[in-house]
Amino acid sequence: MTDSTVSMPGNQPGSGNALLLLLKARTFIALILVVLFFSIAAPNFLSTANLVIMSKHVALNAFLAIGMTFVIVSGGIDLSVGSIVGLCGMVAGWLLLHGINPGFGWSIQFNTFEICLIVIAVGVLVGALNAFLITKLNVAPFIATLGTLYIARGSAMLSSDGRTFPNLNGNPEYGSDTFRWIGAGDMLGIPVSIWMLVIVGLGAAYIARRTPLGRYIYAVGGNEKAAGLSGVRVTQIKYFVYMFSGFCAALVGIIIASQLVAAHPATGDTFELNAIAAAVLGGTSMSGGRGRIGGTIVGAFVIGVLSDGLVMMGVSAFWQTVIKGIVIVAAVVIDQAQQRVQARVALQAQAALGK
Amino acid sequence: MTRPAEAHPVGLSIRDGTKVYPGTVALRDVNFDLRMGAVNVLVGENGAGKSTMMKVIAGVERLTSGRLILDGQEVEFRSTDDAARHGIGIVFQELNLFPNLSVAENIFISREKTRFGIDIDKAKQREMTRALMKRLEHDIDPDALVGDLKVGQQQIVEIAKSLAQDARILILDEPTSALSAAEVEILFRVIDDLRASGVGIVYISHRMEELIRVGDYITVLRDGVITGAQSMEGVDIPWIVRHMIGQASKDFAKEIEHDFGPEIFRAEHVTAPNRHGGFDVRDVSFSLRAGEILGIYGLMGAGRSELLECIIGERRDYRGEFFVEGARLTAQGVAGRIARGIALIPEDRKTDGLVQILSIRENMTLSSLSAFTRGVHMSLKREAETVRDFIRRMTVKVASPEHEVSSLSGGNQQKVVISKALMTNPKILLMDEPSRGIDIGAKAEVFRVMRKLAAEGLGIVFVTSDLEEVMSLSDRIIVMSNGRITGEFNRDEATETALVEASAKGHTPDISAEPVTEDAAR
Fold first, then answer.
1. Residue B408: which of A4, A342, A350 has the nearest Cβ?
2. What Pfam families has UniProt attached to this entry (chain B) (predicted)?
């Protein structure tokens, strides 16, 4: 929330302002540069087919990164999202293949919509567990979500003894044959998962900018004590951010299971790190209170475009990892510079007022 | 106790010392002599410059202009280490200890006793610590973790740390604020001992009886200027108070004459426990009328801030009842209390009052976003309008409301905090040290705002340790000490001496019996 949403009179134009604007738009500039580079270096990079495939890849990370942004802005961290992706995929697979068996010799079957609702409920529930551990039991977010990372992953493994649920084509009798559409279908030529990303992204940005809830998330991350003394219900805010992060992870679990028409319990391993990377690249401060949804989505695109582009160029996967690391560190270094320039500009403007 | 001046040579002196911070002058041309083998007491109100002067001597801060003379030679201390090498030790009011390390490790931190410069000689450190503790008559295990000790014991460790450095000059900044009467007695014996061995001691305290008992020389500071310096002979409490307050009154706002409304708030038998099995607040009852300014005077740790924390609902571990406009306050938590018309302006602006990285606008409206919200949608336009309106009304000097609040000066930051509270349309305003850390001009403005709000029918409870402030702003004054109300005065019957005496009840080391004063307000 660093830029101004209302223009105020008395904004002093200064030497720092042009530089500041450049620094603020850095992630976007990076994205343009990366796209330009690969469109020259890698043939077919700008073909429609490739762009569609690439954006499908990016969307998965972007969902997680949106949820992660709220968590980090509130001053926390959520390491469990990758495991929630795996667990939710397995729940979806189980429901498609077996339904729920109450043990009376018959089972309850669900249609696609119901399956999605149940899976999302599972993701949100794990998020609520995170929030419970953090707020009521006072466990540090890093440890609490590290714990649920293992719990969720282990549960996913237990659900199938580590095996894959194959052939998740659904059953027309139960109305679950449309499950594949989520991952494979499209509307107006654009994949369903991208439409979902647009909706979730706009929703999250709206929450962040135009609702008290969003403002409270920033306040809690900036100074929890002051927020509490101002009447912000800190516990509720934390429940929201972790549950929302769980919601985003559940969506990714559903989309991957649908795309692959299978659910594997190891799906989503280390996804949380990519999500954190995208958020940080987009200007989210790990110490809380600062970050934007738009920046995070652009950050996710930079990471996604970078890795897909390097694959197309035939760069080794090992080099890709090194390059990703360099990009993330560079982003944070530039972010520090932006903070310094911004503080200087504000102080200059204040000093110009006279004492 | 007082001996001729020749017996106490001047060890260190400041000549024409001036210290300027951005926006405020903390010390103005002070001339201070520190006498060896004697206790030099230093007294003054909060913000008078006592701590700044000691920080200069201890090498924490450097003078903007002026000279520091040690044993006849001009010196300049670049750091506390530098000062320590010259034999100057300081015990800060805020303890500088590592709670995760042992007592012995704390005492010898960065001066570890080693074998061959590598291996820490723990046995030797332990032994020396034991010797120090014996001298201080405290039975503290050298291997105990400092974090496990009581605050009073931690203060002893801090004193031991200075003793271990063989300081020739020892500065004690409010050393007794966390000590019990018995512990104070021991400390005084140690001070006598040190004095006899020629150590020059600077002793800062707000407790007048202590000063008169332990001091040989006294220096009084007011607004960065020394207003009195002499040997302790003939000095009594009225003398000290006179020099602390002075004749020239600060620029307080003229009172706006208005009648009080009906009772708007009442507290009944509020008691809150502290972490060490005692009580922060004991059986406090008072009432407040609309349009009335109630001042709560007391020393640090008297339970004033804790009382406000109970009222605003940040603390929930208290017993007792609150009533707003006659109706019992059942809402738990800060949000519920704000909704009932209570607002708090916290003591520590930086950590409790503001979210530093958010903008001025976002800080101002944090408590009152619902006023701009329909359903879930927040009107940024109406928010910006309200913020602009408050910036004008409170005369906050800002370049743009979108700048981070941390770019403002202390006084302007305080106005942002007050605006935040006022935006919730409170009926009762709680202000904890509203003038702390802001310059005189901003203070006067804050006081004017308080007067105006009271005239508009707001009930204000404000906490301060500034005598002059409480005397000139309050319609009624409550004095707290040790968690209890130890005095209540109407505006016309309050005197400085009476307030100071009431605020020291339960602290005077000589009193061994339980100093109970049950004249609770009504």
1. A350
2. ABC_tran
